[in-house]
Amino acid sequence: GNNGESYPILWWFALNKTRCDAINKRGRRGYLFTVGDERPLPVLRKDEINRFCGGGAEADIPIDALLRDVQEKWHVFHIIVPTEATRSQGAEQAWRDLLGERVIVASDHTKLGEIIVSTMQVNEGHDADTVAASWSGDSALVVRKAVSGLSRRAPAPVVEAV
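and the corresponding structure tokens:
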């Protein structure tokens, strides 16, 4: 009933409470996916962070500022599983305003694994049509629709290992 959810708490957790082999040992960005049907709340509240993530937040954090920080080490994507809440909140547009093409609409929630793997492959430089064609049956159709808006990227830039 608050017109959104605190998905970006995962971003904060990834930045402040995790160690990722890809980042720390190989100097590569990790992958961070959130999945849901509602729009993101514009501010991550300090009390939520401290309650659910074991402390460490000194102030509320605007999610656009948090996103800039998290993107230094992580490829951030949000998968929308459309519901009535998605439509009534304008959630897809809110996410697109924040993440651009890194918003994936899942037409079939049972294919999230295939969508995530395929998104990573396209982000790493593979052709979206070829990636989609590697799946069979319904999976190929769902993946094709999900990754069709992603740009084929050059290999991810290397970040300095910690």
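(Above: one complete record from the training split.) The first strand starts at residue 30 and ends at 36.
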